[in-house]
Amino acid sequence: MNGLSLHNKHHDRRSFTQLEQDLLFQQTVEEIIREYAGHSFSERNTETLLATIYKHTRNPAFFSTSSSLIALAKFSNYLLQSIGRINHTHLFSIRNSSQVSIPELNIQLSLQLELGEWKQKSFVVKKFVWNEFDKKLLTHLISLFTIKAYSQIPDEIELIDLSNGEVTISPISEYHEAILYVKQTLANVGKSSISGSFYRVTTTKKQ
Hints:
It is a single chain. By secondary structure, this protein is an alpha+beta fold. It is 39% helix and 21% strand. The strands form two sheets. The chain has a five-stranded mixed sheet, with helices on both faces. The longest helix has 20 residues, at 18-37.
């Protein structure tokens, strides 16, 4: 989870790094989803979504290069398709806890979630991402977070990658399976923390 802000309307038209572009798209989709999900059921339609996308993609960074324009077109197209497949009567906003503690790993975990969809007796977490490669890590992190933060546990986690339209649906991870995977990831990178555009895992300092 990165504090970098790329949403100043007065940015110049400089070239942006791939990391900056990825952060921009991730932050933007989160803003769009939060605003769209906040509308009443009668207002959740294609017209409203298009207006919301337009509102949040005025940053000059989206128009700085031809590749940025192509990326924006993919982003908008896949987002429209993905939202169109959701049963809007079952859609709801997810409110986040700021962070959760995972004592088995001696870590603090924070991440950003926006959207859920009710399914029979439980629900599905729907997370829109941009250019994220380790879907397995994301599934385990979201599993750990929801197990610790919420009284009701989702049945599934659905990751929608707006950079390529890929949808990954996974059952909620078993707690200890997720613990082992995150522990191994930390060991492999040889760091006390790992972070992405919407999550951060930080090792707690021992007293």
